[in-house]
Design goal:
By secondary structure, this protein is mainly alpha-helical. The protein is built from five helices and two strands, in the order H-H-E-H-H-E-H. Helix 2 (about 30-45) packs across helix 5 (about 95-100).
């Protein structure tokens, strides 16, 4: 039997994907890479403010054990290297997608 909270969580996840899909309609998700980056962003943006903060990046890195992927780069580094307009210490969904498309 599935726990009621689990069902609610799955519904929330589906709603989040819908919200991000609607939010990014003007971003033109033309490649699978952009689509995957959008999905990743929706997972990483824990407070649902449409920005990825250093704290959220560190939290996800620890939760998902990303330290195993590289000893020279950490998930919060993407903010340092991809934060553009405005430079505000966090990434918008557009900046995040651009980072994964090499448009930084």
């Amino acid at each position: 039997m599935q726990h009621e909270g689990t069902s609610l969580c799955l519904v929330c996840q589906e709603m989040l994907l819908l919200v991000y899909t609607m939010y990014t309609k003007n971003v033109h998700l033309s490649t699978e890479r952009e689509y995957l980056a959008t999905l990743m962003f929706s997972f990483y943006d824990r407070d649902l403010d449409f920005y990825l903060s250093p704290d959220e990046a560190r939290e996800m890195e620890e939760k998902e054990h990303f330290e195993r992927l590289s000893t020279s780069c950490a998930l919060p580094d993407i903010i340092t290297y991809s934060d553009r307009n405005p430079v505000d210490g966090r990434l918008s969904v557009t900046e995040f997608i651009a980072a994964f498309n090499g448009k930084v």
